[in-house]
Design brief:
Layout (H helix, E strand, L loop, with lengths): L1 H37 L3 H12 L3 E2 H8 L3 H13 L3 E5 L7 E5 L1 H9 L6 H8 L3 H18 L15 H5 L16
Antiparallel strand pairs: 1-3, 2-3
Length: 183
């Protein structure tokens, strides 16, 4: 009986890893589509959207909101600056910090830009019942918890360490309160 449980657990782990690879592949394919048709990647589009929502935001805050390293976001910002979609301005109060803002071209681009994820996903996800959306969200949050590096030095700054921290982030909230989570 115990070996059946171990086998079932191994099978399920394999299925989970396959599903994660399929999600990563779908994100990568959509990013390539954006690059080919709009000359922008998914992460670049998300940075532009974050900057639009938070006028004059620092690179560090963008990195925290996207759960990326500051160095990664700095590279994305440099490419967006070359495309004249945003500007980097030195902060008057703290000369070490730069604040980001959209250019007119960046604002125009976002008015005509596609979503950073597939429209098909958005349409299907919005069609789900709230309990299904919350189940998917809590399952993904739990997966993030399980996959976090045990040594905090290994993870990028701004990375969410547990789902409670994720729920506390602006713009991320459960659609209803499911009560205590016993996952």
């Amino acid at each position: 009986m115990e070996s059946n449980n171990a086998y079932a657990g191994t099978m399920m782990t394999g299925q989970i890893l396959t599903a994660l690879r399929q999600i990563a592949q779908a994100i990568d394919l959509h990013s390539r589509y954006l690059e080919k048709n709009y000359s922008i990647t998914g992460p670049q589009l998300i940075v532009l959207q974050v900057v639009r929502q938070n006028k004059m935001i620092s690179i560090g805050k963008v990195a925290a909101e996207m759960s990326l390293n500051i160095s990664t976001v700095t590279g994305i910002v440099a490419r967006l600056e070359k495309k004249n979609l945003l500007t980097r301005t030195r902060c008057a109060k703290d000369k070490r910090r730069f604040l980001l803002n959209l250019t007119g071209e960046g604002e125009h681009f976002l008015q005509t830009a596609p979503q950073p994820v597939q429209e098909q996903f958005l349409t299907r996800f919005e069609g789900l019942e709230n309990w299904e959306k919350n189940m998917i969200l809590s399952s993904l949050q739990r997966l993030v918890d399980l996959m976090q590096a045990p040594d905090s030095a290994m993870a990028p700054s701004g990375v969410v360490r547990d789902s409670n921290e994720l729920n506390a982030r602006p713009g991320i909230e459960l659609l209803y309160d499911p009560g205590p989570q016993n996952l």
